[in-house]
Write a structure and sequence with these properties.
4 helices; 87 residues; two-stranded parallel sheet; mainly alpha
Amino acid sequence: MSDHGTLLHCDEAQRFIDQIEDPVTRTLVNMAFVHLVKKVHLERNYPKSDLDMVYLVMALKDFFAEHDMFARTLDGEKVGAWFADEK
């Protein structure tokens, strides 16, 4: 029995990434995907449980598609509901 998880459905996740129309979003999602694959396969830094990579890249696509939010954040603005209560 393994004491760590594995990355599931990586080939399908890569196909999903390849079909993302926006090139900036596709690049950002691919960078995050490659980072995780390298952590597991090159650094042997395994997740504690299995990780569905299709689900992950679908969520990352939605997140990274918010280019305006990233631009504003990189300009120093506190963007999003996380900061709604801060004065």
